[in-house]
Amino acid sequence: MVLQRSKKRVITKYQNGKLEVVEDEIATEFPITIHVNGEEFATMVCTPTHLDELVIGFLASEGVILFKDDVTNLEIDEGLGFAYVTLKSNAFTNHPDHSKRFIGSCCGKSRQFYLQSDVRTAKTSMSNTKMKVEQCIQLMNTMQENSIMFKNTGGVHNAALCSPTELIVDRTDIGRHNALDKLYGYSMANSIPVRDKVIVFSGRISSEVLIKAAKIGVGIVLSKSAPTDLAIELAEDLNITTIGFIRGQTFNVYSHPERIINS
C-alpha cells in the first residue's frame, strides 16, 4: 500500500467576486500507533512519509532509546497504521514515566520542563558553530523553495537539518513536532553528528519545539516565525541560539547572538 501525503478534493472556492467549483490539494492526516516490545506505547497523527524516521526520532526524543542500535527490529504496517518496535531487553524497561508533569530549576535559572523525559534527554548545547547573517537568510530561503507540499496544500510544517552552508535534509509533516522527530530519526539512522548543525523551521518556536531541538543536540534554531518567552528562557539556559522572523533581509536574534557574524 502506497500512502499519499496529500489528496485531491473538489471544493467550492470564492474568488474574483464569485463562487466556483475547483479541485484542491489537501494534506493527509494519518494516525499511527506505536507498539514497543508488544506494548501499545503511543498514537500519533502525522503525514504518512518517512514513518521509520518518525518512529525512531520520537522514541529517542521521549528517552526510550539512546542509540539506533537499541532498536533490534522495526516493522510498519501502513495499511492498518501500526508500527511494531522491538528493543533490546533493557532499553524499554528503563524509560521514565511520560505521564508525570515535571517543573524544575537549575541553580536558580529559568529552566522548566513539562515531563521527566525532557529533563533526561534535553542537552545543553556545546556547539561552537558560527553563522554569517547571509547564511541564515539563505538557509531559510532554500527550505521554503523546497517546500512543494506546503505550496500545494498550505497545511504542513517544514523543518530542515543543515550545516551553516547547506541544507542536508528536509522533512514535512502536519505536526511540527513530527517534522522535528523525522529529522532526529534521520540523523540517528545515518549517524550524522549534530553538534555543529542547524535546524531551520517554518513555525513558531514554542518551548516544546526548543526542547525538541535541544534533544536533537543542535546549537542554532532558525525560524520564519516568533519564539515564546519560555522558549527564549530555555534557549538561554541550554546555550542555544534562537533566531526568528527571518523574512526578506531581516531577522531577530533572541538568545546567544555570539554565534551570528555580520560580515
Give your account of this protein's structure.
With about 260 residues, the protein is an alpha/beta fold. The protein is about 25% helix and about 35% strand. The chain has helices at about 50-60, 115-120, 135-145, 150-155, 175-190, 205-215, 230-235, and strands spanning about 5-15, 20-25, 30-35, 40-45, 70-75, 80-85, 130, 155-160, 165-175, 200, 220-225, 240-245, 250-255, 260. A six-stranded mixed sheet has the order 9-8-10-11-12-13. The chain has a four-stranded mixed sheet with strand order 4-3-6-5, covered by helices on one side. A two-stranded antiparallel ribbon has the order 1-2. A hairpin with a 2-residue loop joins strand 1 (about 5-15) and strand 2. The termini are far apart. The model is unreliable at about 95-110 (pLDDT under 50).
Quick structural gist:
The protein is α/β, with parallel strands linked by helices and about 260 residues long.
